[in-house]
Design a protein that fits this description.
The chain is 32% helix and 25% strand. The protein is of the alpha/beta class. Helix 3 runs parallel beside helix 6.
Length: 279
């Protein structure tokens, strides 16, 4: 089964005061689209998956009710402590099959009009097909465009491969500031089997302890979260520790925006105008 996990617990502090009352994932920033950014994300992946779950926090329950966001599967963290704990919590709370494939995505990215994403869909389909043959692999999506902003860091690459029009690459290392031009922007999209994700959580003792305590009910969820003292990034604390031979990157070389700063909203508006003019 292919499962889409949408990360929607962020506070959007870098977009204050625009998001001070309502975080970006619950706002309608997408050009020529009536729903929220969360709805847009859901609509993008809906044709590709069998199941969708939203991960957010208890503090946003009222927003879901106020905006009448009717999602069948919503998982509420007691409090937000970064993507690492959110993914650990999600993995522990769900009784997914080990062979299920998870597509874990942010809820605040722009990929273009939903009716014009065939190229992106082919990339995701190829990634899913690859995982069906290589169960221990983690697949990331990297973007090549220099004007794309990302909070997820950079991926320095080795060889580039083009197989049936789908571009992939070997990873050399993860870096914060590149010294070379041979790099990709990490789009924060993770495609992985459940059993591989559980194995990856072992790379961080705190995240793995959280998973074990909740999955096997060694402690109450409230007690687990009361003992968390810091935010943990899934990228920095897990992905950057995974052996690069167990990671593949598929390259998305089209327009893309990670909506994190006010200037990204201006870029988003311009992209929307360009797409509208091209119709």
């Amino acid at each position: 089964m292919i499962r889409h996990i949408i990360m929607a617990g962020g506070k959007s502090t870098r977009l204050y005061p625009i998001t001070i009352d309502t975080p970006k994932q619950f706002q309608s920033f997408i050009p020529n689209y009536k729903g929220t950014m969360l709805d847009y994300t859901n609509d993008i992946y809906k044709p590709l998956v069998d199941y969708t779950q939203v991960i957010t926090t208890e503090q946003y329950k009222q927003i879901f009710e106020k905006l009448n966001l009717n999602y069948e599967n919503i998982l509420y963290e007691p409090s937000a402590h970064g993507t690492g704990y959110a993914i650990s919590f999600m993995t522990a709370m769900n009784n997914f099959n080990d062979e299920d494939i998870l597509i874990i995505t942010p809820s605040d990215q722009y990929l273009g009009p939903i009716d014009n994403l065939d190229y992106f869909y082919n990339i995701i389909k190829n990634a899913i097909n690859t995982l069906s043959k290589s169960s221990d692999l983690l697949i990331l999506i990297g973007n090549t465009l220099k004007d794309s902003f990302t909070q997820f860091g950079l991926i320095e690459t080795n060889n580039i491969y083009n197989i049936d029009g789908i571009i992939s690459t070997d990873i050399k290392r993860f870096i914060e500031k590149p010294s070379k031009q041979k790099f990709l922007r990490n789009m924060g999209i993770f495609i992985v089997k459940v059993k591989t994700l559980i194995k990856m959580l072992e790379l961080d003792k705190d995240l793995y302890r959280c998973f074990l305590d909740i999955r096997f009910k060694r402690k109450s969820i409230e007690k687990v979260y009361n003992n968390i003292t810091n935010d943990v990034s899934f990228d920095r604390n897990i992905i950057e520790k995974v052996n690069v031979s167990n990671i593949a990157v598929y390259v998305y070389d089209k327009k893309w925006l990670d909506i994190g700063l006010p200037e990204n909203l201006k870029q988003l508006k311009l992209l929307g105008e360009d797409n509208h003019d091209q119709k």
